[in-house]
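pasting for the record
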Amino acid sequence: MQTDTLGVIHPDGEEDFEFTTAGGKVPWAAFLRKAGVIERLAATCPVTRTSPNAAPIADVLHSFALTAVCAGTRFAHVQRLREDPSLAELFGIKRVVSDDTLRRLFARIDVAAGAEWVAQAQRVLRGALPDRLILDWDPTVQTKYGHQEDARMGYNPTKPGRKSFHPLMAIAAGTRLCTSYHFRPGNTVTASGWIEAMA
């Protein structure tokens, strides 16, 4: 938590909605508008909303992205963003949705359809990468709480004995873009799955 000059407390990450690029600092909201990733995902979402009271898919996706940017690790962490009406105005959405709304949307997405849905949006970002680049491959440990599918007990340096995921990620050097995320259960040995992931 951080306190600004007026004494208002912000969750970690909320105060920094910009990131550094080769062309200088870019506000997160401006990047999302320019890239059009959220709108593309909303337009091609494999779930059809039929209720007139349902939150627009773009609002749900913006809420999810903001939670991740603000170091949220659970759907429930979106609640801390709902008290700030300026976020909705800044990102052009009706409102930041609740954690139940996030869960309901993602629970309805089939795994295979969801992977293809995200891959389509990624193609635009990947198209902006140079033809030749350096990929920094790194495994990480993502601690999980509750009962999550494929969360297993394995090597976990921060929470020994706690279930986790152990994904492999490839980051394009100098861009902060994750070009590949290869899911693995928490009991996976660090040295396994590299060839399949790189292929």
